[in-house]
Specification:
single chain, about 130 residues, Rossmann fold, about 40% helix
């Protein structure tokens, strides 16, 4: 344990402090690091999204909004790799919207400027 001091005291506690954890789980054999020539693609993976119990959204509604996803625990949803961007939008956009609304209220912004917004809007503007 002496050699793992930083891991135990700095890395591991972060998982208890975050509201959402996303882990990638490969659905293909990755046991031989020298046998595989490339990393698994998104379609060969699942993403496990865990929520802190006190801030989890309506998980059943979330599972309905993300195709082919399922609940593995009351606060955990498993999402197919190809649906990750959609899942991030469905999960995070309401939270971002609330943060922006509170920020506007604090700053006294009445009517924001019209512009493209959202994850896909930001991606499309960069091309």
């Amino acid at each position: 344990m002496r050699r793992m001091h930083d891991y135990v005291h700095y890395i591991t506690p972060q998982f208890a402090r975050t509201h959402i954890n996303i882990q990638m789980m490969a659905a293909v054999d990755t046991s031989g690091p020298f046998a595989i020539s490339e990393m698994p693609t998104e379609d060969e993976c699942f993403f496990v999204v865990s929520f802190k119990r006190d801030c989890a959204p309506d998980m059943n509604e979330l599972a309905k909004l993300i195709p082919k996803s399922f609940l593995s625990r009351p606060n955990t949803i498993v999402v197919p790799g190809g649906k990750l961007v959609h899942a991030i939008e469905v999960i995070l956009m309401p939270m971002v919207h609330d943060l922006v609304s509170v920020s506007r209220k604090i700053r006294g912004v009445k009517k924001p400027k019209k512009r493209k917004a959202g994850l896909r809007g930001a991606i499309m503007q960069s091309y």
